[in-house]
């Protein structure tokens, strides 16, 4: 919601997301200013029968019948009756649908001379580092500042203008406070994905910021629940929903098989590794809460605010 407010104020021009949950679109950010490069679990498309890509935005998860690298959703296009595909980009795949991936929106912004600030929020950049065209080169590299906000190391730390070792929620809260900007509350009633009437007007989702209108008309749909897809029935097969990774499927198979001594040993080893990882994470979190670190974060956020305002 904070990013939506920054976009509304003109401080953020474009958002690239690796998440498949569609939360940025649900927050009210218009689709034209959003690149969901790994897809959106609420969007299915007709990319075979219609001459132009036709997308259907649903108030439910469209991947319940699709599987790993099998994208058919079981529903058909209203116009050509071709079976629809989900938009999830699985591991090893190259996403080629125009929406909701919107690669063109990202590259257009990066190629503009006015792009002078890139903010990386809460990502290890393990995947994004592979996309060379996402990172400034040549003259643009000298002009554009890169800010990384993450608790742990990333492969782009050495090229970052500023690295903030803190939680994203804490940084964004401080940033909005320094800007004097409120963080809007999420309104389920006015959610453009869950609200079927708004979903039908996909043109508005494409180009307009979705505002909460409850204050003006009274919240008469406070207990609104999104409809469930009639065509979707739970499957008894042990298959992985389309937007999950294959690793979850393997874990499920292991949990349903009898436990032998070798598996027990491996589980103990994994448990020790998980405990060690948890200890390291706790150490990082505790170290980020002391007073000196908080002062450093406050100063770093102040620098980020200055760059944000100057980039307008």
UniProtKB/TrEMBL annotation:
It comes from Plectus sambesii. One of its GO terms (molecular function) is metal ion binding. It comes from the Eukaryota. The lineage of its organism: Eukaryota, Metazoa, Ecdysozoa, Nematoda, Chromadorea. GO terms for biological process: regulation of macromolecule metabolic process. Residues 284-295 have a biased composition (Polar residues). Belongs to the sirtuin family. Class IV subfamily. Its cofactor is Zn(2+). The keyword Kinase does not apply. PROSITE patterns: SIRTUIN. Keywords: Metal-binding, NAD, Phosphoprotein, Transferase, Zinc. GO terms for cellular component: chromatin; nucleus. Residues 1-182 form the Deacetylase sirtuin-type domain. This is Regulatory protein SIR2 homolog 7. InterPro entries: DHS-like_NAD/FAD-binding_dom (IPR029035), NAD-dep_sirtuin_deacylases (IPR050134), Sirtuin (IPR003000), Sirtuin_cat_small_dom_sf (IPR026591), Ssirtuin_cat_dom (IPR026590). Residues 255-295 are annotated as: Disordered.
